[in-house]
UniProtKB/TrEMBL annotation:
This protein causes differentiation of brain cells, stimulation of neural regeneration, and inhibition of proliferation of tumor cells. One of its GO terms (cellular component) is cortical actin cytoskeleton. This is Glia maturation factor. InterPro entries: ADF-H (IPR002108), ADF-H/Gelsolin-like_dom_sf (IPR029006), GMF (IPR011171). GO terms for biological process: actin filament debranching; negative regulation of Arp2/3 complex-mediated actin nucleation. PANTHER family: GLIA MATURATION FACTOR BETA, GLIAL FACTOR NATURATION FACTOR. Residues 4-135 form the ADF-H domain. It comes from Phyllostomus discolor (pale spear-nosed bat). SMART domains: ADF.
Amino acid sequence: MSESLVVCDVAEDLVEKLRKFRFRKETNNAAIIMKIDKDKRLVVLDEELEYSGNFSFFNLRKTFIVYSYKYQHDDGRVSYPLCFIFSSPVGCKPEQQMMYAGSKNKLVQTAELTKVFEIRNTEDLTEEWLREKLGFFH
């Protein structure tokens, strides 16, 4: 029989932080980066990033990201979609990869995220990639 899939809960303080993040008033791009605490089997805050002006997607090349993005539509409108970007962790043990994969849906449900994107290679995470993905929603 194969190993059962471990689904981690989301830390309460992170749930509250994500709720506040959803309704933030700032108009700059910002991100909440999360990780799994293997011992506690919890999805926890790793770091928060805020950007003014131009920024690099390099800092977003992590496994669990909730990203508030200033999206300029072709017709001139501006929206601030909340995007969840998931990539499978590279270079870690299979059981850790399964822990991240198994916890992804729980995190999406708990944080009530609707714009969910998966990327295989974090090197491909660029603004063009994100704009292309968001184009399907608008």
